[in-house]
Protein backbone atom coordinates (compact mmCIF):
# COMPACT_ATOMS: atom_id res chain seq x y z
CA UNK A 1 0.00 0.00 0.00
CA UNK A 2 1.39 3.41 -1.02
CA UNK A 3 1.88 6.21 1.50
CA UNK A 4 -0.88 8.27 -0.17
CA UNK A 5 -3.27 5.33 0.04
CA UNK A 6 -2.29 4.80 3.68
CA UNK A 7 -2.96 8.44 4.51
CA UNK A 8 -6.29 8.44 2.65
CA UNK A 9 -7.40 5.25 4.43
CA UNK A 10 -6.52 6.66 7.88
CA UNK A 11 -8.20 10.00 7.13
CA UNK A 12 -11.45 8.33 6.07
CA UNK A 13 -11.36 6.02 9.10
CA UNK A 14 -10.99 8.99 11.44
CA UNK A 15 -13.55 11.24 9.76
CA UNK A 16 -16.04 8.38 9.66
CA UNK A 17 -16.46 8.68 13.43
CA UNK A 18 -16.24 12.46 14.11
CA UNK A 19 -17.37 12.36 17.75
CA UNK A 20 -14.93 9.64 18.71
CA UNK A 21 -12.10 11.31 16.82
CA UNK A 22 -12.94 14.72 18.28
CA UNK A 23 -12.81 13.44 21.86
CA UNK A 24 -9.41 11.82 21.30
CA UNK A 25 -8.07 14.98 19.65
CA UNK A 26 -9.38 17.10 22.52
CA UNK A 27 -7.69 14.90 25.13
CA UNK A 28 -4.36 15.02 23.31
CA UNK A 29 -4.62 18.75 22.61
CA UNK A 30 -5.35 19.59 26.25
CA UNK A 31 -2.35 17.53 27.35
CA UNK A 32 0.02 19.26 24.92
CA UNK A 33 -1.35 22.73 25.74
CA UNK A 34 -1.00 22.05 29.48
CA UNK A 35 2.65 21.07 29.11
CA UNK A 36 3.52 24.11 27.01
CA UNK A 37 1.60 26.64 29.14
CA UNK A 38 2.87 25.36 32.48
CA UNK A 39 6.46 25.37 31.28
CA UNK A 40 5.87 28.88 29.91
CA UNK A 41 4.67 30.03 33.35
CA UNK A 42 7.69 28.46 35.03
CA UNK A 43 10.09 30.04 32.53
CA UNK A 44 8.26 33.36 32.86
CA UNK A 45 8.64 33.28 36.64
CA UNK A 46 12.36 32.60 36.25
CA UNK A 47 12.80 35.51 33.84
CA UNK A 48 10.70 37.80 36.03
CA UNK A 49 12.86 37.14 39.09
CA UNK A 50 16.03 37.50 36.98
CA UNK A 51 14.74 40.84 35.70
CA UNK A 52 13.98 41.99 39.23
CA UNK A 53 17.52 41.25 40.38
CA UNK A 54 19.05 42.76 37.25
CA UNK A 55 17.09 45.98 37.85
CA UNK A 56 18.91 46.33 41.15
CA UNK A 57 22.13 47.13 39.32
CA UNK A 58 25.17 45.36 37.89
CA UNK A 59 28.07 43.63 39.69
CA UNK A 60 26.14 44.14 42.91
CA UNK A 61 26.91 42.90 46.41
CA UNK A 62 24.53 43.32 49.33
CA UNK A 63 26.02 43.59 52.82
CA UNK A 64 23.57 42.58 55.55
CA UNK A 65 24.18 42.96 59.30
CA UNK A 66 24.47 39.62 61.12
CA UNK A 67 25.53 36.15 60.01
CA UNK A 68 23.34 33.06 59.70
CA UNK A 69 26.07 30.96 61.34
CA UNK A 70 25.87 33.01 64.53
CA UNK A 71 22.14 33.61 64.84
CA UNK A 72 20.98 30.15 63.71
CA UNK A 73 18.88 31.41 60.81
CA UNK A 74 18.86 33.98 58.05
CA UNK A 75 20.54 37.34 58.72
CA UNK A 76 18.32 39.72 60.70
CA UNK A 77 16.72 42.38 58.55
CA UNK A 78 16.91 45.38 60.87
CA UNK A 79 20.50 45.38 62.04
CA UNK A 80 20.31 43.10 65.09
CA UNK A 81 24.00 42.33 65.18
CA UNK A 82 26.79 42.36 67.81
CA UNK A 83 28.02 45.62 66.27
CA UNK A 84 26.00 48.15 64.25
CA UNK A 85 26.67 48.53 60.55
CA UNK A 86 27.46 52.23 60.13
CA UNK A 87 27.98 54.79 57.39
CA UNK A 88 31.70 54.81 58.20
CA UNK A 89 31.76 51.04 57.62
CA UNK A 90 30.27 51.66 54.21
CA UNK A 91 32.60 54.48 53.17
CA UNK A 92 35.79 52.71 54.25
CA UNK A 93 35.01 49.92 51.77
CA UNK A 94 36.02 52.31 48.98
CA UNK A 95 39.67 51.83 49.89
CA UNK A 96 39.54 48.48 48.04
CA UNK A 97 40.42 48.75 44.33
CA UNK A 98 37.83 46.04 43.55
CA UNK A 99 34.95 48.28 44.72
CA UNK A 100 33.69 51.12 42.54
CA UNK A 101 30.81 52.53 44.56
CA UNK A 102 29.02 52.00 47.86
CA UNK A 103 25.55 53.14 48.89
CA UNK A 104 24.64 52.96 52.59
CA UNK A 105 20.93 52.27 53.04
CA UNK A 106 18.70 53.23 55.94
CA UNK A 107 15.00 52.42 55.70
CA UNK A 108 12.02 53.51 57.73
CA UNK A 109 8.37 54.45 57.38
CA UNK A 110 6.98 57.95 57.89
CA UNK A 111 4.11 60.15 56.71
CA UNK A 112 4.94 62.52 53.87
CA UNK A 113 2.71 65.61 53.78
CA UNK A 114 2.11 68.48 51.41
CA UNK A 115 -0.69 70.90 52.17
CA UNK A 116 -3.69 68.86 53.30
CA UNK A 117 -2.49 65.67 51.60
CA UNK A 118 -0.56 62.99 53.47
CA UNK A 119 0.71 59.52 52.64
CA UNK A 120 2.60 56.93 54.72
CA UNK A 121 5.46 55.61 52.60
CA UNK A 122 8.87 54.00 52.84
CA UNK A 123 11.57 56.60 53.43
CA UNK A 124 15.05 55.57 52.29
CA UNK A 125 18.22 57.30 53.38
CA UNK A 126 21.27 57.01 51.15
CA UNK A 127 23.89 58.97 49.22
CA UNK A 128 24.33 60.18 45.66
CA UNK A 129 26.01 56.85 44.80
CA UNK A 130 22.64 55.08 45.06
CA UNK A 131 21.70 56.55 41.68
CA UNK A 132 24.41 54.61 39.80
CA UNK A 133 24.45 51.55 42.04
CA UNK A 134 20.69 50.95 41.69
CA UNK A 135 20.34 52.06 38.04
CA UNK A 136 17.76 54.68 38.97
CA UNK A 137 16.36 57.22 36.53
CA UNK A 138 15.15 60.77 37.13
CA UNK A 139 12.07 62.12 35.36
CA UNK A 140 12.44 65.72 36.59
CA UNK A 141 14.97 67.60 38.65
CA UNK A 142 18.05 65.82 39.99
CA UNK A 143 19.09 63.15 42.46
CA UNK A 144 20.69 63.60 45.87
CA UNK A 145 23.67 65.96 45.68
CA UNK A 146 27.27 64.79 45.89
CA UNK A 147 28.99 65.61 49.16
CA UNK A 148 29.91 64.31 52.55
CA UNK A 149 27.71 61.49 53.81
CA UNK A 150 27.36 63.19 57.21
CA UNK A 151 25.67 66.27 55.72
CA UNK A 152 21.99 66.22 56.70
CA UNK A 153 20.66 68.29 53.81
CA UNK A 154 16.89 68.78 53.96
CA UNK A 155 16.26 67.58 50.38
CA UNK A 156 14.16 64.73 49.06
CA UNK A 157 13.59 62.80 45.82
CA UNK A 158 10.03 61.51 45.41
CA UNK A 159 8.74 58.47 43.54
CA UNK A 160 6.37 59.28 40.68
CA UNK A 161 3.31 57.78 42.45
CA UNK A 162 4.01 59.71 45.64
CA UNK A 163 4.46 62.90 43.64
CA UNK A 164 1.09 62.39 41.90
CA UNK A 165 -0.68 61.69 45.22
CA UNK A 166 0.73 64.82 46.90
CA UNK A 167 0.95 67.30 44.04
CA UNK A 168 -1.40 66.03 41.33
CA UNK A 169 -0.55 67.60 37.97
CA UNK A 170 1.33 70.56 39.44
CA UNK A 171 5.11 70.73 39.50
CA UNK A 172 6.76 69.37 42.66
CA UNK A 173 10.40 70.27 42.09
CA UNK A 174 11.30 73.16 44.36
CA UNK A 175 8.26 72.69 46.61
CA UNK A 176 8.44 71.64 50.25
CA UNK A 177 7.04 68.56 51.99
CA UNK A 178 7.06 67.40 55.59
CA UNK A 179 8.44 63.99 56.44
CA UNK A 180 7.56 63.25 60.02
CA UNK A 181 8.18 66.58 61.75
CA UNK A 182 10.95 67.75 59.44
CA UNK A 183 10.70 69.96 56.35
CA UNK A 184 12.34 68.89 53.08
CA UNK A 185 12.66 70.54 49.68
CA UNK A 186 11.80 68.37 46.66
CA UNK A 187 14.74 68.33 44.24
CA UNK A 188 13.77 65.44 41.94
CA UNK A 189 11.15 62.96 40.80
CA UNK A 190 12.02 59.34 39.99
CA UNK A 191 11.02 57.95 36.62
CA UNK A 192 8.55 55.07 36.49
CA UNK A 193 10.33 51.84 37.40
CA UNK A 194 7.63 49.61 38.90
CA UNK A 195 8.40 47.26 41.74
CA UNK A 196 11.85 45.95 42.59
CA UNK A 197 11.95 42.91 44.90
CA UNK A 198 8.65 43.85 46.45
CA UNK A 199 9.44 47.57 46.93
CA UNK A 200 7.37 49.98 44.86
CA UNK A 201 9.92 52.52 43.64
CA UNK A 202 7.09 54.86 42.71
CA UNK A 203 5.84 55.10 46.30
CA UNK A 204 9.07 56.02 48.04
CA UNK A 205 10.93 59.08 49.33
CA UNK A 206 14.74 59.20 49.20
CA UNK A 207 16.66 61.55 51.51
CA UNK A 208 20.33 61.85 52.52
CA UNK A 209 21.41 59.11 54.90
CA UNK A 210 22.41 61.62 57.59
CA UNK A 211 18.93 63.16 57.40
CA UNK A 212 17.41 59.68 57.75
CA UNK A 213 19.54 59.03 60.84
CA UNK A 214 18.25 62.22 62.42
CA UNK A 215 14.66 61.53 61.33
CA UNK A 216 14.54 57.99 62.72
CA UNK A 217 16.96 58.62 65.60
CA UNK A 218 19.15 55.61 64.87
CA UNK A 219 22.50 55.04 63.23
CA UNK A 220 22.59 51.36 62.30
CA UNK A 221 22.18 50.79 58.58
CA UNK A 222 19.61 48.48 57.03
CA UNK A 223 22.21 47.26 54.52
CA UNK A 224 25.03 48.44 52.26
CA UNK A 225 24.89 48.13 48.48
CA UNK A 226 28.32 47.63 46.94
CA UNK A 227 29.12 47.83 43.24
CA UNK A 228 32.22 45.89 42.21
CA UNK A 229 34.56 47.41 39.63
CA UNK A 230 33.68 44.62 37.17
CA UNK A 231 32.16 41.19 36.80
CA UNK A 232 35.52 39.48 37.14
CA UNK A 233 36.22 41.26 40.46
CA UNK A 234 32.96 40.36 42.24
CA UNK A 235 34.50 37.46 44.18
CA UNK A 236 37.50 39.57 45.25
CA UNK A 237 35.22 42.45 46.19
CA UNK A 238 33.17 40.09 48.37
CA UNK A 239 36.30 38.94 50.20
CA UNK A 240 37.50 42.54 50.54
CA UNK A 241 34.20 43.54 52.18
CA UNK A 242 34.46 40.67 54.68
CA UNK A 243 38.09 41.48 55.49
CA UNK A 244 37.53 45.21 55.94
CA UNK A 245 34.42 44.82 58.11
CA UNK A 246 36.14 42.14 60.21
CA UNK A 247 39.06 44.50 60.81
CA UNK A 248 36.74 47.34 61.83
CA UNK A 249 34.61 45.10 64.07
CA UNK A 250 37.48 43.79 66.21
CA UNK A 251 37.81 40.51 64.35
CA UNK A 252 34.08 39.70 64.42
CA UNK A 253 32.53 38.11 61.32
CA UNK A 254 29.17 39.75 61.90
CA UNK A 255 27.99 40.56 58.37
CA UNK A 256 26.68 38.52 55.46
CA UNK A 257 27.69 39.44 51.90
CA UNK A 258 25.37 38.20 49.16
CA UNK A 259 26.38 38.53 45.54
CA UNK A 260 23.86 39.25 42.83
CA UNK A 261 25.12 36.35 40.73
CA UNK A 262 24.72 33.92 43.65
CA UNK A 263 21.13 35.03 44.19
CA UNK A 264 20.36 34.73 40.49
CA UNK A 265 21.95 31.28 40.29
CA UNK A 266 19.95 30.07 43.30
CA UNK A 267 16.63 31.29 41.93
CA UNK A 268 17.53 30.00 38.48
CA UNK A 269 18.04 26.48 39.85
CA UNK A 270 14.81 26.67 41.85
CA UNK A 271 12.71 27.75 38.87
CA UNK A 272 14.33 25.26 36.51
CA UNK A 273 13.37 22.44 38.87
CA UNK A 274 9.90 23.97 39.29
CA UNK A 275 9.44 24.23 35.51
CA UNK A 276 10.44 20.60 34.98
CA UNK A 277 8.19 19.50 37.85
CA UNK A 278 5.07 21.23 36.49
CA UNK A 279 5.92 19.98 32.99
CA UNK A 280 6.07 16.44 34.37
CA UNK A 281 2.73 16.88 36.12
CA UNK A 282 1.20 18.20 32.90
CA UNK A 283 2.81 15.31 31.02
CA UNK A 284 0.62 12.94 33.02
CA UNK A 285 -2.33 14.30 31.06
CA UNK A 286 -0.62 13.10 27.88
CA UNK A 287 -0.44 9.59 29.36
CA UNK A 288 -4.15 9.83 30.15
CA UNK A 289 -4.79 10.91 26.56
CA UNK A 290 -2.75 7.95 25.33
CA UNK A 291 -4.80 5.54 27.43
CA UNK A 292 -7.95 7.11 26.00
CA UNK A 293 -6.63 6.54 22.48
CA UNK A 294 -5.87 2.91 23.31
CA UNK A 295 -9.31 2.27 24.77
CA UNK A 296 -11.17 3.99 21.95
CA UNK A 297 -9.12 2.22 19.31
CA UNK A 298 -9.75 -1.14 20.99
CA UNK A 299 -13.45 -0.37 20.64
CA UNK A 300 -12.83 0.69 17.05
CA UNK A 301 -11.15 -2.64 16.32
CA UNK A 302 -14.20 -4.52 17.57
CA UNK A 303 -16.48 -2.25 15.51
CA UNK A 304 -14.41 -2.66 12.34
CA UNK A 305 -13.91 -6.42 12.34
CA UNK A 306 -15.66 -6.72 9.01
CA UNK A 307 -13.36 -4.13 7.47
CA UNK A 308 -10.29 -5.85 8.90
CA UNK A 309 -11.52 -9.24 7.65
CA UNK A 310 -12.02 -7.83 4.14
CA UNK A 311 -8.51 -6.38 4.11
CA UNK A 312 -6.99 -9.70 5.15
CA UNK A 313 -9.17 -11.63 2.72
CA UNK A 314 -7.86 -9.40 -0.08
CA UNK A 315 -4.34 -10.40 0.85
CA UNK A 316 -3.27 -7.69 3.31
CA UNK A 317 -0.71 -9.27 5.64
CA UNK A 318 -0.85 -8.81 9.40
CA UNK A 319 2.02 -6.35 9.26
CA UNK A 320 0.06 -4.15 6.84
CA UNK A 321 -2.99 -4.10 9.15
CA UNK A 322 -0.67 -3.30 12.07
CA UNK A 323 0.77 -0.33 10.16
CA UNK A 324 -2.71 0.91 9.26
CA UNK A 325 -3.83 1.14 12.87
CA UNK A 326 -0.51 2.57 14.04
CA UNK A 327 -0.78 5.18 11.29
CA UNK A 328 -4.24 6.12 12.61
CA UNK A 329 -2.85 6.52 16.12
CA UNK A 330 0.08 8.58 14.77
CA UNK A 331 -2.25 10.80 12.76
CA UNK A 332 -4.47 11.35 15.81
CA UNK A 333 -1.47 12.23 17.95
CA UNK A 334 0.02 14.55 15.33
CA UNK A 335 -3.20 16.47 14.74
CA UNK A 336 -3.83 16.58 18.51
CA UNK A 337 -0.33 17.95 19.07
CA UNK A 338 -0.85 20.66 16.44
CA UNK A 339 -4.20 21.67 17.95
CA UNK A 340 -2.60 21.65 21.41
CA UNK A 341 0.22 23.95 20.24
CA UNK A 342 -2.36 26.32 18.76
CA UNK A 343 -4.30 26.30 22.04
CA UNK A 344 -1.05 26.96 23.94
CA UNK A 345 -0.23 29.91 21.65
CA UNK A 346 -3.70 31.36 22.22
CA UNK A 347 -3.37 30.81 25.97
CA UNK A 348 0.04 32.49 25.99
CA UNK A 349 -1.35 35.55 24.17
CA UNK A 350 -4.24 35.67 26.63
CA UNK A 351 -1.91 35.55 29.62
CA UNK A 352 0.34 38.22 28.09
CA UNK A 353 -2.72 40.45 27.64
CA UNK A 354 -3.98 39.88 31.20
CA UNK A 355 -0.54 40.18 32.84
CA UNK A 356 1.53 42.51 30.63
CA UNK A 357 4.33 42.87 33.23
CA UNK A 358 4.84 39.13 33.51
CA UNK A 359 7.11 37.66 30.80
CA UNK A 360 5.20 34.55 29.71
CA UNK A 361 7.98 32.86 27.72
CA UNK A 362 7.79 29.39 26.16
CA UNK A 363 11.14 27.55 26.34
CA UNK A 364 12.29 26.30 22.93
CA UNK A 365 12.31 22.71 24.11
CA UNK A 366 8.75 22.76 25.52
CA UNK A 367 6.66 22.56 22.30
CA UNK A 368 9.14 20.10 20.75
CA UNK A 369 9.06 17.89 23.84
CA UNK A 370 5.26 18.12 24.18
CA UNK A 371 4.69 17.21 20.52
CA UNK A 372 7.26 14.41 20.72
CA UNK A 373 5.74 12.94 23.87
CA UNK A 374 2.27 13.19 22.30
CA UNK A 375 3.41 11.30 19.21
CA UNK A 376 5.26 8.72 21.29
CA UNK A 377 2.31 8.24 23.63
CA UNK A 378 -0.10 7.77 20.74
CA UNK A 379 2.12 5.18 19.09
CA UNK A 380 2.90 3.28 22.30
CA UNK A 381 -0.74 3.05 23.33
CA UNK A 382 -1.78 2.31 19.77
CA UNK A 383 0.32 -0.84 19.60
CA UNK A 384 -2.12 -3.07 21.55
CA UNK A 385 -5.22 -2.40 19.41
CA UNK A 386 -3.11 -2.55 16.25
CA UNK A 387 -1.68 -5.94 17.21
CA UNK A 388 -5.17 -7.20 18.01
CA UNK A 389 -6.38 -6.14 14.59
CA UNK A 390 -3.35 -7.70 12.89
CA UNK A 391 -3.89 -11.06 14.58
CA UNK A 392 -7.57 -11.40 13.60
CA UNK A 393 -8.58 -14.42 11.57
CA UNK A 394 -10.04 -13.15 8.27
CA UNK A 395 -12.90 -15.66 8.24
CA UNK A 396 -13.90 -14.92 11.82
CA UNK A 397 -13.54 -11.17 11.17
CA UNK A 398 -15.78 -11.36 8.06
CA UNK A 399 -18.31 -13.26 10.13
CA UNK A 400 -18.01 -10.38 12.69
CA UNK A 401 -17.09 -12.73 15.49
Summarize the structure.
Belongs to the ABC-4 integral membrane protein family. It is a multi-pass membrane protein. This protein is of the alpha+beta class.
Please explain how this structure is put together.
This protein has 401 residues and is an alpha+beta fold. It has two domains: 183 residues, no CATH class; 171 residues, no CATH class. The protein contains 13 helices and twelve strands. The strands form two sheets. Strands 2-3-10-5-7-6 form a six-stranded mixed barrel. A two-stranded antiparallel ribbon has the order 8-9. β8 and β9 form a beta hairpin. It is elongated and about 100 Å long. The chain starts with a helix and ends with a helix.
Strand order of the largest sheet: 2-3-10-5-7-6
Number of domains: 2
Helix segment tally:
13
Spans where pLDDT lies below 50 across 5 or more residues? 69-81
Distance between the termini: 26 Å
Structural class based on helices, strands and sheet pairing:
alpha+beta
The percent of residues in helical segments reads 40-55%
Label the overall shape.
elongated
Note the quaternary state here. single chain
Query: Main β-sheet: number of strands, strand sense, barrel status?
Result: 6 strands, mixed, barrel
Helix and strand run: HHEHHEEHEEHEEEEEHEHEHHHHH
Approximate strand percentage:
15-25%
Arithmetic mean of pLDDT = 80
User: How many strand segments?
Assistant: 12
**What's the gyration radius in Å?**
33 Å
Keywords: Cell membrane, Membrane, Transmembrane, Transmembrane helix
Organism: Desulfatitalea alkaliphila
Family: Belongs to the ABC-4 integral membrane protein family.
Main location: membrane
